[in-house]
Hints:
Layout: H1 19-26, E1 37-41, H2 48-54, E2 58-62, H3 70-90, H4 103-121, E3 130-131, E4 145-151, H5 163-176, E5 177-186, H6 199-205, E6 210-216, E7 227-233
Parallel strand pairs: 1-2, 1-4, 2-3, 4-5
Antiparallel strand pairs: 5-7, 6-7
Helix pairs in contact: 2-4, 3-4
Amino acid sequence: MEKKPAYPQTGVASTCRSYEEYERMFGIETDKLTGKKVLDVAGGASSFTARLCARGIDAYAADPFYAGDRQAVVALARREIETSSAKVAAMSQVYDWSYYGSPERHRRIREASLESFAVHFQSEADGERYLAASLPRLPFESDTFSLILCSHFLFLYADQFGEAFHEAALRELLRAAMPGGEIRIYPLVTLAWEPVSYLNRLLDILAADAEASFVPSGLPFVPLESSVLVLRKKTIRSER
Ligand SMILES: C[S@@+](CC[C@H](N)C(=O)[O-])C[C@H]1O[C@@H](n2cnc3c(N)ncnc32)[C@H](O)[C@@H]1O
């Protein structure tokens, strides 16, 4: 099969997928999150946290991108829409458009998501839900979250962040999750559209603390099909 061209990216982009994209991509139902504490790690300018909070769910986001002046952060996210939309349009033939329909609609969804994020992120009451923090260290107590999501950071940037980083990051996410809580990560492919060679080795290393499974994603787009990784934190650490 012909190799699809890699997504051209230096450093990590701060994108802004919408709440609806998160719901489909991770296969989650908001109604089931009532009364739970939820964290979006590497949340970027996504509207996910804003929309969950609007539904009365106790949601937080963590990302190094949230540091500094809040208007400047929003302006940067707005510029990233320009940059990423141009890249996506230029290589549109590699993507699966069955959900988005067209590069124009893809862009409009990003713009609407950014506007919801901007209002919430800059509001006095809710702004503190966005924590400037970088994996592999998060500023949360252990055993805090029922659900932790990570969209388009872990594994996708595996060429910049290696195996040791990923092991430390997954351990940190497991520390922050409640016993019985879930971590969901998508996608599990790199920006060169390749599987991550050390994924199974990491799951094996973490097996005493987490039960791993894979579920289908409901958001077709990336050129190499990927499932969602679900890590369920064990209530009792198992001996190996
Ligand atoms: C491609 S964006 C994804 C944003 C959002 N989750 C989405 O799906 O649109 C990747 C995000 O990872 C963040 N990031 C970079 N290094 C990080 C780290 N060490 N820990 C947590 N997030 C990081 C970036 O700032 C950026 O916002």
